[in-house]
Amino acid sequence: MSVTGVHDTERVTLARRAELGVRTHDTLAAPPSAELRPLEPDDWPAVADIYWDGMRDGLATFETEVPSWEDWDAAHLRVHRLVAELLGEVVGWAALSRVSKRRCYLGIAENSVYVAREARGLGIGRALLEALIAGAEAAGIWTIQTAIFPENRASVALHQKCGFRIVGMRERIAKRDGVWRDTLFLERRSEVIT
Fold first, then answer.
1. Fewest beta carbons less than 10 Å away: which of 1, 113, 123, 163?
2. Contacts of 96 (CB under 8 A, 6+ apart)
3. Cβ neighbours of residue 170 under 8 Å, at least 6 residues apart?
4. Cα-atom radius of gyration of the chain, to the nearest Å?
5. What are residue 98's DSSP bridge partners?
6. What's the CA gap between 25 and 116, in Å, rounded?
7. Can you spell out the DSSP letters for the chain?
8. What is the pLDDT of residue 33?
9. pLDDT tens profile 39-71
10. pTM of the prediction?
11. How far apart are CA 168 and CA 46, in angstroms?
């Protein structure tokens, strides 16, 4: 049983993995496409499971405990939250949070993107991030920033493919499990909002 008590850690069998589109290299069949929609409170158990999975590997966040829905809800912008569904199952999420309460920084947000382990490599992270960017620009958000562990090469590559640039390295910025960790600081400045 997972942290949320809803999904079993091994909730996706090999058969289900195949159904989700995780395929061997010898097939030509394209994986099914994910549907994106707004994240709703009822999605929290699946979102929390995916978040917990990202926490466990130590590459995604300094956090080590899944927050309550109420805490997570309060920390993220309500109109900038998405989930990706594949065959009726939530397999990824993305959200924006404010970086500051100061009025001059209202057009800057920080993004989070998480994809379930069994659904990685299917383009879901990119679809979520691109949709999040489009929604942010439509709402007048001119800069999206994020901090990523340098070891998380997949996330760094994803963000760079979506127009983020590495601003710099924040050395020994915080501890995770008692060890000082660096983060890469990335940002994407809108070309639409001038």
1. 1
2. 76, 77, 80, 81, 109, 110, 111, 112, 132, 136, 141, 144
3. 147, 182, 183, 184, 185
4. 17
5. 109
6. 20
7. --TTSSS-TT-S-HHHHHHHT---TT--PPPPPPEEEE--GGGHHHHHHHHHHHHHTTSS-S--SPPPHHHHHHHS-TTSEEEEEETTEEEEEEEEEES-SSGGGTTEEEEEEEE-GGGTTSSHHHHHHHHHHHHHHHTT--EEEEEE-TT-HHHHHHHHHTT-EEEEEEEEEEEETTEEEEEEEEEEE-SS--
8. 85
9. 999 999 999 999 999 999 999 999 999 999 999
10. 0.84
11. 33
The residue type of 28 is L
- Cβ contact 76:95 at 8 Å: yes
User: How many angstroms separate the Cα of 36 from the Cα of each of 119, 124, 128?
Assistant: 14, 9, 7
Residue with tokens 């929390």: 48
